[in-house]
Amino acid sequence: MSELLYWLDMFGIIVFALSGALMAGRYQLDPFGVVVLSAVTAIGGGTMRDVILQTPVFWLANPVYLYLILATAALTIIFIRSPRRIPKRFLLVSDAFGLALFAVIGTEKALSLGAAVPVAVVMGMMTGVAGGMLRDVLCNVIPMILRQEIYATAAILGGALYALLNYLEVPQHIAIILAILSALVLRLAAIYWRVSLPAFAIIDVESKEKDLK
Amino acid sequence: MSELLYWLDMFGIIVFALSGALMAGRYQLDPFGVVVLSAVTAIGGGTMRDVILQTPVFWLANPVYLYLILATAALTIIFIRSPRRIPKRFLLVSDAFGLALFAVIGTEKALSLGAAVPVAVVMGMMTGVAGGMLRDVLCNVIPMILRQEIYATAAILGGALYALLNYLEVPQHIAIILAILSALVLRLAAIYWRVSLPAFAIIDVESKEKDLK
Amino acid sequence: MSELLYWLDMFGIIVFALSGALMAGRYQLDPFGVVVLSAVTAIGGGTMRDVILQTPVFWLANPVYLYLILATAALTIIFIRSPRRIPKRFLLVSDAFGLALFAVIGTEKALSLGAAVPVAVVMGMMTGVAGGMLRDVLCNVIPMILRQEIYATAAILGGALYALLNYLEVPQHIAIILAILSALVLRLAAIYWRVSLPAFAIIDVESKEKDLK
């Protein structure tokens, strides 16, 4: 993995750990619960990717990832000592950074291991969305990815653009930066303007009776 | 894998992808969210099986699976353009087909990799139920498997019958068809007549106070 | 694995299977649903550990684990024939035993496979908490680990104490017993006196509007 990718990966770990810690604060967890939720969010997606690709899981060989998560969770707790009012947008924005970074990094890793392009884009999307999905599922919230604000879409754009630029033999540094920026801008724009793709809606005929069961 | 198994597998992917797309429509996801939920439902169980058996994950080597999911999700969205009233039974029936197919295919794969019979039946059940469980958990719904309508039971029947017929050296084609039909008929009958096994019920003494916390 | 570890592992399987069955009874599942929830609780954490460490999954080679789960679930159902009032504390205590046992066993396994200490402690915690987390997520309950009663904390204490005693070359039997007891006592004390670490709380500014969406 190139130097650039390594630092971007670390940055992704920090922002996702932060988003996990912020979510933990909203549910008033104890400090170790905060660390667990930070860790699940930060390394859940990459762990799933590596397990499915059956390549050694990235954080086993390098404890720096765990230390970064611990430090991020600790600093978040220390910095926000008393209950504070923090705009929900902080959580959304740190999540968006992690999503964009990990979608591209995951696609790159899958391609470098020889995966076909559609498989690599899926692995990238999984790297980007799975950590946040686990975080939301653990907090009993319907995952962000299932809401209407262009979430999976941004991850797929980032991964697919990277695969395309890679295929066109654009220098890797440029390809990575462009792909991350495209995913990030799309996701932030969707948050800011509350843009959504048109929803696919089914009205469930029997739902009322079923829900009473 | 035999020709028959291959086509049944593809059919299972399609019906589970459909059940994921229908669920997505009930929660009004955006088009890429529909694709994600279809994919999780269709390949979640088999992925879990292959990861636990530590054999290469089936959809990595063959992108046809991903294309099938994409096509199924796209066709579902196109076919149901405006919000429609779709009976919940559609979702239940497509889910039942996927359950029966994957329970038997999963058992077969585990046996062919040398697993003991009880382990193989468990792997089959997991292949059949895990995709739908992930779908339901992501939508914040208690999974079908935890309701009372003979769900895990049908998957175990299918897998165990296949293992038995396989042990009796019944020709594989016949064993597969019989096992799938048995699981499917049992599950559809349970849906149709709302048959359940007697529930195992504990009344929780302290639940009221706890729930208030 | 030493004789002692083997029997403690079996005991952990039984108490976690029991906690899964008790939870199943509270949600009135059918008998096979009870078995599934028992199995997920009992082997979910260890399965995740082995998959991430990419070592053969422990229950594949030894069907005794599945038989134990089946027997525990069956005995629970038979013993509690009619709906009964069972104090919620039963569930919490069996869960605490499983947590303490598996946290230490998981740490030991990771260390013996050559993992670094922080990684091993994390793998131990995962072994201890993941089964219960899966159980709670499937029942659509916010996992115990996310409540404030020193849950992850107890698992980390057990694993870290084991790693320390192991480093100090304390005989393995003594190290295991001490580490398990420390985690168990801490968790039971937290349940009994409702002790919690101070919660980390964020008040979410926009949550009201968001929740209405």
Please provide a written account of the structure.
The structure is a homotrimer of 213-residue chains. With 213 residues, chain A is an all-alpha fold. Chain A has one domain (3-212). Helix content of chain A is 72%, strand content 3%. The first copy, chain A, contains eight helices and two strands, in the order αααβααααβα. Chain A has helices spanning 3-26, 31-53, 64-79, 88-112, 117-138, 152-167, 172-192, 207-212, and strands at 84-86, 202-204. Chain A is globular, with a radius of gyration of 18 Å. The model of chain A is unreliable at 206-213 (pLDDT under 50). At the B-C interface, helix 2, helix 5, helix 6 and strand 2 of B face helix 1, helix 2, helix 3 and strand 1 of C. Chains A, B, C: It is a multi-pass membrane protein. Chains A, B, C: Keywords: Cell membrane, Membrane, Transmembrane, Transmembrane helix. Chains A, B, C: Residues 6-79, 93-165 form the Glycine transporter domain.
Assembly context of the chains: homotrimer
The ordered string of helix (H) and strand (E) elements of chain A is HHHEHHHHEH
Number of helices of chain A: 8
Largest interface: A-B, 40 and 41 residues
Number of strands of chain A: 2
Evaluate the radius of gyration of chain A.
Answer: 18 Å
**Count of the separate structural domains of chain A:** 1
Largest sheet of chain A: none
How does the overall form of chain A come out from the CA principal axes? globular
User: Which class of secondary structure composition applies to the elements of chain A?
Assistant: mainly alpha
Q: State the helical fraction of chain A.
A: over 70%
Outline the low-pLDDT stretches of chain A.
Answer: 206-213
Subcellular location (chains A, B, C): Cell membrane
Domain Glycine transporter (chains A, B, C): 6-79, 93-165
Keywords (chains A, B, C): Cell membrane, Membrane, Transmembrane, Transmembrane helix
Pfam families (chains A, B, C): Gly_transporter
